[in-house]
Specification:
Layout (H helix, E strand, L loop, with lengths): L1 H8 L7 H8 L3 H13 L3 E5 L3 E6 L6 H5 L11 E7 L2 H10 L7 E7 L17 E8 L8 H20 L3 E4 L3 E4 L2 E12 L4 E11 L15 H5 L5 H17 L2 H11 L6 E6 L3 E9 L5 E5 L4 E4 L4 E5 L5
Parallel strand pairs: 3-4
Antiparallel strand pairs: 1-2, 4-5, 5-9, 6-7, 7-8, 8-9, 10-11, 10-14, 11-12, 12-13
Length: 319
């Protein structure tokens, strides 16, 4: 009921408690309780005598009605599941997908207790400081084609951050997003598939937004607030990502790869490729139509590397 009350207040007009109670089929006392809950979350709500309630200002909230306000997508984020705390939004999204949740369902949490990144790494998820979300996707694709979906998602996040904050967000292959050479986004895509088709993909995305100190990661990571020099709106960033995700999904492979290469922070740089069998250095020269990275070794030979097999690190810093 909290979200239903908030939806009626987001228009900015004064709305009577009786009007809200009639619309929701609850008592005015129940409406008042929800208004008090919203105030506790930082919403400034004015009570005007016998006239009703008026929303004066919103905090940096990720409640579904705040994200949905102004969202013009067709399918991305039209269903939003908000969780105060969850072990992992990807785990919750996979469960919902198995139960038949629609493509575009967004799972977003205030905090995660066991957030995960690529290659088994943990992802710190402090409450109210970042964006921790997973988008359910249902591509009509063979499992071998999912690598390109990772590129689509990375492109949507990078362009969404640029739209919402003005920062020059770029992609460190395959799907980390960096600004000013510092990592601001990590992703983990997990699919449910058999040998012939993909049933669903949970695209998990963690974005550093309000953190003031990255601790031991300060040399390689930052928050958007730190880089922008101001407080960034998390809801605006989520909306921009959802808009860009629809565009990226509609691109043909050629247009996708061209846009991805343009946003790349890896191509044209010297990198070190660290694999289980061997490591080498070289120049990152291309991203293939399958989403692999081509690295020209110092001896001139070209090696095609896959995201699941190696770690690619810049020689002159994180990127």
């Amino acid at each position: 009921m909290l979200n239903a009350v908030l939806e009626r207040l987001l228009g900015g007009e004064t709305v009577s408690g009786q009007e809200i109670s009639d619309a929701l089929g609850v008592t005015r006392a129940a409406v008042w309780k929800q208004v008090e809950r919203l105030r506790e979350r930082g919403f400034v709500i004015e009570a005007r005598g016998r006239q009703g309630y008026r929303l004066v200002s919103c905090p940096d909230s990720l409640l579904p009605p705040v994200i949905a306000q102004g969202l013009t997508t067709q399918w991305a984020g039209r269903e939003i599941v908000y969780l105060e705390s969850v072990d992992s939004t990807n785990r919750a999204a996979r469960d919902l997908a198995a139960q038949g949740a629609k493509e575009g369902t967004l799972v977003i949490a205030r905090t995660q207790t066991a957030g995960r990144g690529r290659r088994g790494r943990g992802w710190e998820s402090p409450a109210d400081e970042g964006i921790f979300m997973s988008l359910i996707l249902r591509p009509q694709a063979h499992p071998s084609q999912v690598a390109l979906l990772s590129l689509r998602t990375a492109l949507a996040v990078a362009e969404g951050i640029r739209d919402a904050t003005g920062l020059d967000a770029r992609i460190k292959w395959p799907n980390d997003v960096v600004c000013q050479g510092k990592k601001v986004v990590g992703m983990l895509l997990e699919m449910d598939a058999d040998e012939e088709r993909v049933r669903s993909v949970a695209a998990g995305i963690g974005i550093n937004v309000h953190q003031r100190d990255m601790g031991e990661l300060r040399e390689t990571a930052a928050s958007l607030d730190m880089l922008a020099g101001r407080a960034c709106s998390r809801a605006q960033i989520v909306r921009a990502f959802l808009q860009r995700m629809e565009r990226a999904t509609a691109m043909d492979d050629g247009a996708l790869l061209a846009a991805y290469r343009e946003r790349s922070a890896t191509l044209g740089r010297r990198v070190r490729v660290i694999g289980a069998q061997r490591s080498f250095t070289g120049l990152a020269v291309e991203v293939t139509p399958a989403g692999a990275l081509v690295v020209e070794e110092d001896g001139g030979a070209r090696e095609t590397v896959l995201a699941g097999d190696v770690s690619v690190r810049g020689l002159m810093g994180y990127v």
